[in-house]
């Protein structure tokens, strides 16, 4: 999986569908332990990428929608083990092929910048490869409720960039939803929503054949699995690195060093009251901004000023096996804070 996948479960847990009359299960010191147990059970139930799993081929159709524009593509995987697999993303305006062999990642893509919705697609797929809960994420509480006629168990997390929630099917431990928002003032329609449904059995596991993301009122990712079959063998060149691919280290848990350091201080100098902004960044190995995009703003006419403010900003450096790497991230903030 992509390096960002290792953080998908903990960095983008969020608000689930509206739930009626929730019942609190645990609180206090027991909450963290209970949450870790639930995450572990869900992973055991659904993670087909786990060590010792059955080798497989997967093919899925993908639909990306941004406002009035849409594009269709495919996502394909040939997986032999956690350290030997190939992934491919194919869209008319962006392609990527990744091959992992042992501790090395070979990647070839059509452009340096990764489109926002391709990144969201990668995160959506990454929810099926659950790591443990991030130590820095505070587990506020765990509750059960009814969601669309199904009893779910929801974990409420508190993070630096906003509260979030993930919901599991109480009977099967299958992931039902994961959602996030920046603060209580944000409208429900402007948050990031991830959904998982149509679970089907595969080699003692349970896999969702429908996955979706919806965020910021107009951005949508829909995934429909077309084929998932056990692999008896692979072609001899299946895991050969793509020609002209970039070689780097591969690790499950990249590390971050440093903090965001704006070039103009800690306050955005706009001076027009509080403006809520979600920004997508492509960060270079030295912590610079390669690409930036305002995803959502309560004052879109000031988007250019907001973008200019980030010129010269230094971001944390992400390292894999000690080597700095590119990464993508979304930052949420309110101007003047």
Question: Any overview of this molecule?
Answer:
By secondary structure, the chain is mostly beta strands. The chain has two domains: 5-249, outer membrane lipoprotein receptor (LolB), chain A; 255-334, 2-Layer Sandwich (TolA/TonB C-terminal domain), CATH 3.30.2420. It contains four helices and 20 strands. The protein has helices at residues 5-11, 30-46, 116-126, 303-309; strands at residues 20-26, 56-66, 69-81, 84-91, 94-101, 104-109, 138-147, 150-159, 162-169, 175-180, 192-202, 205-215, 219-230, 246-249, 255-257, 276-283, 289-297, 317-320, 323-325, 327-334. Strands 1-7-8-9-10-11-12-13-2-3-4-5-6-14 form a 14-stranded antiparallel beta sheet, with helices on one face. A three-stranded antiparallel beta sheet has the order 15-18-19, with no helix packed on it. A hairpin with a 2-residue loop joins strand 7 and strand 8 (150-159). Helix 1 (5-11) packs across helix 3 (116-126). It starts with a helix and ends with a strand. Residues 1-27 and 183-187 have low confidence and may be disordered.
Q: Please give the radius of gyration in angstroms.
A: 20 Å
Beta fraction? over 45%
- Please write the string of helix (H) and strand (E) elements: HEHEEEEEHEEEEEEEEEEEHEEE
Q: Tell me about the biggest sheet?
A: 14 strands, antiparallel
Mean pLDDT: 81
Strand order of the largest sheet: 1-7-8-9-10-11-12-13-2-3-4-5-6-14
Which regions are unreliable across 5 or more consecutive residues at pLDDT < 50? Answer: 1-27, 183-187
Helix content: 10-25%
**Number of helical segments with 4 or more residues:** 4
Principal-axes shape call: globular
Question: Count of DSSP E strands?
Answer: 20
Architecture per CATH nomenclature, i.e. the level-2 architecture of the largest domain? Clam
How many domains would you count in the coordinates? 2
Structural class by secondary-structure content = mainly beta
Give the CATH level 1 class of the largest domain.
Answer: Mainly Beta
What is the rounded distance between the termini? 36 Å
- CATH domain topology of the largest domain: outer membrane lipoprotein receptor (LolB), chain A
